[in-house]
């Protein structure tokens, strides 16, 4: 009986793009797994814990560790109507998104209006919270519009305001992964249908939570919550043509619109994906790290002050009470988003629709960093 040959690996990045050799090596390690058919690496590729981040991996088996613990993580974009958008005033009005909403204790919170039906998996822990790491809720404005017709179909034009929400399943996905790895380690799921049933609940939970987050922020800013114009999950398994497409930090790119996140100090890009099977029907999900968190912390402390990181060169504000996280998530810790987008365009995987320009980015509550003039009195809603 002949041994299975490793799966094919394709890296969708130019020779000038920042792609770590360790990340490419992880792609080839994944390609050697039983049942693996193809690995497509996106231009935001970087090393992960045991598996690459920024990759779409197709196999005849389900490997839960390839998706990881944050099943259902994704990015949603919500239109928001405000009379004025002064970052200093709006930053002071962001709610505490580290405080979870509880269905009983907070039953009167109007954010629950976005809930249609049950809470997936009955998982109430962390509802309405954003999480840590690279997760965020951002008030942004539409900047450059590359495709006016497409933007118009989404109800967008230059200058419009949107909420961008990046968050996942807040502990539910980790619970699902741990239940598998404690018995089977990094091996495939012996009962794919059973794993996928739990996985699908985590994906639903993540989408619901992004709606709750957007509703909490919209109401705090004096606006009515709206339905998302984009909501794509980039950590999941998709059953496709009799195979299992594992996406880890790779967004669905087959005829769907996707928000590809930049950094706190750079634009993000709303794109129309048109990726084919060679790319795992996927596009990048963000700029992609070029420094580990430890390196970003060490270099950032030597180069920046906390106040420099709380107000970006673009004039936007960052709400973050965790100083360590500020350095770990500094814009310099990431690749150039412009290069990531250029690689997607050059490989015919996506077409840019518009940019979003950050105004206020929420990472974690920081009541003490609000500018002094804004703490004297609470501004009127408007």
Automatic annotation (TrEMBL):
EC identifiers of the protein: 6.5.1.8
Active site per UniProt: 285
SUPFAM superfamilies noted in UniProt: Hypothetical protein PH1602
Annotated Mn(2+) 1 binding sites: 135
Biological source species: Nonomuraea longispora
Residue numbers binding GMP: 134-138, 234-235, 268, 285-288
Pfam families: RtcB
Name the record gives this protein: 3'-phosphate/5'-hydroxy nucleic acid ligase
UniProt entry keywords in alphabetical sequence: GTP-binding, Ligase, Manganese, Metal-binding, Nucleotide-binding, RNA repair
Signal peptide start-end: none
